[in-house]
Amino acid sequence: MKKIILLFLMSSFLSIGFSDNHFPEAFTMEALQCKFTKGNDMDSAKRVIAQWKDNADKNFSAPYSAWVITPLYTSNQDVEFDFAWLGFSPDAASMGRTQDEWQATGAESIGAKWEKVTDCDGQALYGVIEARAPKNPSKEGQKGYLSVSNCSFKEGKTGLDLAESDKAWNEYNDKNGFEGGVWRWWPGAGSPTSYEHDFLLAISYSSMEEYGRGRDNSLAAMRADTRPESILNCDAPRIYSSENMRLVSSE
After folding, report:
1. Residue 67 near residue 144, CB atoms below 8 Å
2. Distance from chain centroid for Cα 111
3. Residue 122 φ/ψ region, left for φ over 0, alpha for ψ in the -120 to 50 degree band, beta for the rest
4. Secondary structure of residue 173 in the 3-state scheme
5. Alpha carbon distance 241, 82 (integer Å)
6. How far apart, in whole angstroms, are the C-alpha atoms of residue 233 and residue 203?
7. Which of 27, 42, 64, 111 has CA atoms 20 to 30 A from the CA of 154?
């Protein structure tokens, strides 16, 4: 993908499948998918990110946390960027406010430096729904891994089946000691019109060992016929290294 992804939460998904009024956590996410310009690398980008962070600390009046992810297990046919920027705010209004504040205070000066070291193209909006919260809170500067898959509902399954499915899978993951988080990224305004899936599924891991252990547990559960029913068809995940750049609590 060659587009900047700005994730926007559509309110209709907040009411799907949660008749007990226990709604999952929801966020707005902003993501930039970028290549380095000639002669530049991640160190070059991080020098500009440090200036962006100073500006954000001084001028952002709404929560905004950010991560950088870089391809690890990916195919050049699917992933053509050098890194992606993922920024999170608690809702679309907060994301919009930080964007306004960035445009007013740093986009021209710091943005010009960013454009010299990176080439980021495209823009889209998605909504983020948390299917499973990480067992351990994030820390500023934290490193880890993120897998991302394209998913679609199986025939006869819809968003109304998500709550029951999440419950079964969270019980399974608890039993197997999985401590990462699970999120669904729902396409919104500006997303590619050619996108044929229902959403992207993102899963965080503290280590590649944790990812591998999850695959081993899944295979064992399939052999024992104890794996929960999946209501989704998902493609093979792309796995990225992740590093936190800025962490601000929404509380």
Report:
1. no
2. 23
3. left
4. helix
5. 12
6. 16
7. 27
Residue type, 126: Y
Could you give the CA distance from residue 179 to residue 191 in angstroms, rounded to a whole number?
30
Alpha carbons 130 and 55: distance in angstroms, whole number: 29
Task: Give whole-number Cα distances, 104 to 60, 63, 107, 109, 177, in Å.
Answer: 11, 17, 7, 10, 46
N-terminal to C-terminal alpha carbon distance within the chain: 33
Cα–Cα dist 72/138, whole Å: 21
Encode pLDDT of 159-177 as tens digits. Answer: 999 999 999 999 999 999 9
Residue type, 59: N
- Whole-number Å distance between alpha carbons of 239 and 227: 23
**Band of pLDDT at residue 157, cut at 50, 70 and 90:** very high
Alpha-helical runs (H) found in the chain: 42-59, 92-105, 109-117, 162-175, 208-224
Cβ-contact 246, 140 below 8 angstroms: yes
Q: How far is CA 92 from the centre of its chain?
A: 15
Domain ranges (residues) in the chain? 5-246
Class of domain 5-246: alpha beta
Q: Summarize pLDDT for 92-111 with one digit per residue, the tens.
A: 999 999 999 999 999 999 99
C-alpha angle 80-81-86 in degrees, rounded to nearest 5: 135
The DSSP output letter for 43 is: H
